[in-house]
């Protein structure tokens, strides 16, 4: 059977096999695939004939990024040259990126075809196997790619180099986002105010605080900001509920998420601080700390004095306590909702519409006054009144009016009191213990109640007291959680020993040790760590006869503190008293027990256990210790159990078992026999990556609703008996090695099917379950045809990165479809039947390179369509789009006519790209843009001349504008609320200039290859400025008024002579290739300066000042022929990196450099000494080259401390270190 061609790649590797196949190419290929990047590695067996075959051609065209590895003999291969020509064509036609590696050659050798490259080209000419035109194409491609910036590998460590390349690629390809409330009402103003300050795509490090009273919407705002920024960060982490989470757990989550590792098992806060400092100092991180209530939490995670993360990191803190935000870069107070938005939010919950019925307007206004603009109160009280008759409204509002404003909990308590007793108890359980738990698991602890817990949960959700969020997790607002816990305390007259639920560790220990617990105590939670010195002694639980919930977490318990303790005796004395125990959960607890058979045989039996959670279960311990007769849930995640484990026999007693979770049991190669577990509803085998066989007895599980096999990467087949799973509603088999789905006729209740990243899956028969499916994910598979069936219930269909070429007629049967994803497929046409899908909200067809013809006119009928993404296609025409559109991404091609989008009055985000100079788009007029008054973000990329409308400045909501244009005719006055403005490559007609003087809110400005910019001296709120390739820019750059500037990057501005201004807030400064620059304020004296990079400024004579800033961390200077000396650096007590290159007049490095870790000096032939070499106590890495006078004296005893550092070659100094957290990226 012919090997199927991968439908889509992210990276194409081109290399000369004999040079690099078993070297850097192999390093890179495996490193990319290991982190999930789909890379195509050229196989020389595909080299047949003189033309590129269809498989290679397709691989190059479908890749996002091409990486040619230029080695010494690369150009000897005509195949490598043909691939390179194809890459250049894809770059010019489709905008594909080329990121080349210069392996053992110089860029000039490739660009100019000299040395080995010239010899290779001459050899091809002599052989006369190819036409002159082909040879010229090869030379042109070498010249174009050789002129681009790229990585230089020569003499660098391959492991370090590969890591750097992979990280950059991950950043380019990565996306993150979190879900937000589906009843979001007009957070826009708050978001805009926030983004004006924080900016977007800024590269400065910022710590921002959001404060406000509980229930005002801080978490929602933080989530929206996180989603807006996350696309630009590779390292993202959202830590929720900080207030109620142990510091060690938070530190562990932070490190694990950023480094993408398993848990670090942090045992104490000081250890966590050290780990964060050492592991994350160079990482650029987006971090949200939600609901902080203590300064110690900030100190342990972010740092007491300064951010512990890399340059460009953003930390967002939400808190009710404004005092905690002292010292942050910016504080944002979240204000209450105004009347208009309050009414809309209240109406959504009270009436399920945007406005109240006329007869309820007076009562609604009364309710709004009571809620006082708090979103939580508006939602909760609105939900309470939903569906109630007018009399109940009047009674309830009368009660609420007696409660003073500001007493939010008392108002929310009205909703609690309106619940039935069972609903109250379930709500209190959730508030005390179950926030974040899977509702499908915990529901079993409530199944002894008179009414079904499902109904009670539905009531709680309808009343807006809880939410069931992504992953079926229970979520409660912190105000409501506190309300529930306060109710428990008040019921017990504030006496922990009389509480029904004890969740606080210290209170729980006190209750147990003093034996003051009463029959009221039903649930208790204990959390021990390495510092715990008090532990159980004797019959602590004897006074808790009604205990039904026991959770014990030990973390890394210090056995020196408990070595005298007999676990065996404690169990024997205490467990017989827990006759009503139903929920038993421990972590790393039983591993401290002795592994004797007598101990296990003599353990008492707990007759009522329904839940056992035992992560990292020790293989020696058997379940004979417990009765499993009533067991409903067993969680043995991350345990070392195998197929041969003896415990499977005892587990046969669990006839009522409903949930079996074996996540991450990596030693399990086949499942046990399931014949004795006919009541099983959930079977989770996620991440059992050695699993190769699922026992055929799975067919006997008639009640199974969830089967999760994600990440069982060795699993190739599923048993035929699975067709007997008639109750199955959710099947997840992503990232397995299955090749096809057999025709399972019995699965008629299937709602969710995910096969994502099953690269070998080419067939999928879904006829029997198609009518019930709601979510179908066939992304990243080899499926080329949509499975046959009637998908009338389908809500979301994901076909992205599959091999699908066409949508069949059956698409018209998907009447309930809301989201259609087909990105990166070989799809050739969109059918008119799409217009029949009346509920469709999103269509994603970006990077469908084979898509041609016209988008069907029927799409105008889709009155709910909000999002359309269309790029890298050959579509010739765009019809009129529906007015409901809010987000449009459209990339023109050579055949497409530019549409008029003036009817899209609800657009908020618009991206238009045209990378071709085409007759259909010449002198493109965009007059209609001025009418899109709701527009917030506008990105335009045109290779044709464009004209912006004269009323462009009236777009009052436009905050972000990016223009990548070949020619801009008569730039208009810009919208004055812009906070983010980028313009690339804009040649202005009639020598016009861009005037920024009136953009008072502008915080980020970047310009590249433009003519001239004016008005920079008026930008008082500017925080980041990037100027590149401004050939006509004025000689003087006056930044005197820009006192908030933190980051400046100026590159290739040949006429710039002077930079002026006292830049008090500046942290990072880069000046590169400004050949006329003579004067500038002394950056080393700026109080907050942390990194300074100055290179190729040949007329700059000095970098002096009265005193160097003590905050300076990195100093890099190079190619400064007139620079004779640097100032004394003694005061730079934080200086960790110093790089001096090609400064021929530099004689001495002055100062005590006690913190210096990395030192690089080369090409400084006059440099002969350090004023105090004995101060280099912390030096780790050293490179000195081309400094003959200095090298002569390095052997003396005076320089013995330098010899302790690693003596590295030029390339071994990590470019990632210089660039990561300490300043501007050096051009690579």
Query: What class would the helix/strand composition place it in?
Result: alpha/beta
Name of the CATH first level of the domain at 11-173: Alpha Beta
Terminal CA distance reads: 44 Å
Give start-end ranges of low-pLDDT stretches.
1-7, 44-50, 562-566, 591-602, 1208-1228
Largest sheet features: 33 strands, parallel
Question: What is the fold named in CATH at topology level of the domain at 11-173?
Answer: Rossmann fold
User: Can you count the beta strands?
Assistant: 56
Per CATH, the architecture of the domain at 11-173 is 3-Layer(aba) Sandwich
Strand content: 15-25%
Q: Can you describe this structure?
A:
The strands form nine sheets. The protein has a 33-stranded parallel β-sheet that branches. The chain has 29 helices and 56 strands. Among the domains are: 11-173, 3-Layer(aba) Sandwich (Rossmann fold); 199-333, P-loop containing nucleotide triphosphate hydrolases (Rossmann fold); 339-471, no CATH class; 492-635, Leucine-rich repeat, LRR (right-handed beta-alpha superhelix) (Alpha-Beta Horseshoe), CATH 3.80.10; 657-783, Leucine-rich repeat, LRR (right-handed beta-alpha superhelix). The protein is of the alpha/beta class and 1228 residues long. The longest helix has 17 residues, at 78-94.
What keyword list fits this structure?
19% strand, globular, 1228 residues, 33-stranded parallel sheet, repeat, leucine-rich repeat, 6-stranded parallel sheet, single chain, 56 strands, Rossmann fold, 23% helix, alpha/beta, disordered C terminus, TIR domain-containing protein, WHD_ROQ1-like, disordered N terminus
